[in-house]
Amino acid sequence: MKSPRPYALPAGSGPQTLTERRKAATQLDIARAACELFAEHGPDGTTAEDIAHRAGVALRTFYRYFRNKQEAVAPLLAGGGDAWRALLAEEAPGTPLAEALERAVTRSLSGPQAVEEGLEVTRGLLRAAAGDAALRAVWYRVNQESEEDLVPVVGRLAGPDAEPREVRLLAAAATDAIRVALELWAATDAPVSGPGSPVELAVLCLRDLTGAMPLLRRTGAAGASPRSHGPTVV
Fold it and tell me: Considering the entire predicted model, what is its pTM?
């Protein structure tokens, strides 16, 4: 099985030291091994020892970074949120928020890494999570952390006059739109691009959840109407 790669390396607050880069690389190696084994044997058929052996690290190294086997997949799941927040952060202040959000979501879910490997890895993990409460808890925690990290990005784009309540609500809605889209897609055999793909579902969910928000109406709307046109898929 080809080793899955994350959407992007975890974003940091600044340049990483060599030690930090090595630690991050080790965590990703362990996460990839966990994903492979969960896909092959399921969470119940996989032990922390199996993951450590597949990753080529000692068991004590595994537990240095992760409390249990389910936690080991968090770096890969978090990579998607890291990537789309980074793309959203590239947008200039004053850009219509709806337009900026849709563009960032579309780019992150239709990029080469996401289409080639990242999304199928996520589908496999979400399917495994359906029967594993601890794995679902990791998924929900990663999404909660992503939402919290999204707040300052949205706040910068919304401008200093935006109400904190509106910024928080928009960050929550945008995060949930992607989460729901991925969960819906993972339950099907739809392709990673085109009709029924994560990017199509995510844009539709985003429009459904945010279309009536005053903050988006004040900062401009996306060019296409969700009722008259489908999402733009790159």
Answer: 0.84
How many Cβ atoms are within 10 Å of 191's Cβ, its own excluded?
13
Spell out the SS3 assignment of 48-96: HHHHHHHHCCCHHHHHHHCCCCHHHHHHHHHHHHHHHHHHHHCCCCCCC
CA pair distance 158, 172, nearest whole angstrom = 15
The CA–CA distances, whole Å, from 143 to 85, 147, 157 equal 12, 6, 21
Per-residue confidence in pLDDT tens, the chain, 234 aa: 333 333 334 444 467 788 888 999 999 999 999 988 998 899 999 999 999 999 999 999 999 999 999 999 999 899 889 999 999 999 998 899 999 999 999 999 998 877 776 898 899 999 999 899 999 999 999 999 999 999 999 999 999 999 999 999 999 999 999 999 999 999 999 999 999 999 999 999 999 999 999 998 887 644 333 333 344 443
Helix (H, G, I), strand (E, B) or coil at 111: coil
